[in-house]
Amino acid sequence: MPECFCPEELGGACYFEPVTAESSDWMPTHEHFPRSKREGGHRDLDNTVLAHRLCNRIDYSISSGPPYAKDLARVKAARERAIQDNI
Ligand SMILES: [Zn+2]
Question: How far does the centroid of ligand 1 lie from the alpha carbon of residue 82, in Å?
Fold first, then answer.
């Protein structure tokens, strides 16, 4: 299973923001799983999970090489905002 980076303070893997015209980090996106698109996986019912948009991007970066420090910084900032909002 792809790793979820959504902060527990925000709701973790079960938390999804609504899909709107403005894409958010925590909106649901389709992820090819268990067989990734790179490995020839298709967009079929038995190869589908929902993943956060940001988690999907980080997962791709981890396996394919693009830098993702800025994405991890977005996770950290979201965690800090969620903590701030819950105080
Ligand atoms: Zn996630």
Answer: 15
DSSP string, 50-76: EEEHHHHHHHHHHHH----HHHHHHHH
pLDDT digits (tens, 9 = 90+) for 21-71: 999 999 999 999 999 888 999 999 999 999 999 999 999 999 888 999 999
Distance 23 CA to ligand 1 centre (A): 15
d(CA 84, CA 67) in angstroms, rounded, equals 28
Position 2 scores a pLDDT of 77
Q: pTM for this structure? A: 0.89
Span between the terminal Cα atoms of the chain, in Å: 32
Contacts of residue 5, defined as CB under 8 A and 6 or more positions apart, other chains included, come to: 52, 54, 55, 58, 72, 75
